[in-house]
Each structure stands twice: as structure tokens, then as C-alpha cells.
Write a structure and sequence with these properties.
- By secondary structure, the protein is an alpha+beta fold.
- It has one domain.
- The chain is about 35% helix and about 15% strand.
- It has 2 helices and 3 strands.
- Strands 1-2-3 form a 3-stranded antiparallel β-sheet, with helices on one face.
- The N and C termini lie far apart (about 40 Å).
Length: about 80
Amino acid sequence: MPLAEFELVMLESGEVALQRAGSDEPLVRINFAPEAMSYLDGKHLEVAKVMMDAGLQKAFDIGEERLPQSDSAEDKIHTLH
């Protein structure tokens, strides 16, 4: 996924969503159960932010793992003069 600016928004449904800046299409939605909302005592946006940050970091890590690695001797280019 290319680097872009993301934003957290509160949807009319009460869900917290992650979307690209300038877009109205949520990429990820978090819906807290009423019991969780009560337990979090109004801090659910802070929890959602940490959840999204961790998820984005892991997604970027997975993307980096997929990049071709050229550390092996077979992949190195040799120049003969």
C-alpha cells in the first residue's frame, strides 16, 4: 500500500473508521460494544488510535517483507574488466 495520509473519523453509526485523507470510503472500521464503551469511559477514540497505529505499522512491515531481497550471492551483479 503506498504511503498516504490517513485520518480517523467518527461515523454516524458510532464506529471509528480509518480512511485516506480526502476520501469518504473507510478502509477499516472499529465498533466497540456498549460494555467496552462503558469500560473505556470516553477513551475509546484513544484506544482506536492505538489499534489503528499498530495495524498500519504491521501492514507496512508485511509490505517490506514482500520486497525482493538481493543479499544472496546469486543476485549480486559482477563486473568483469
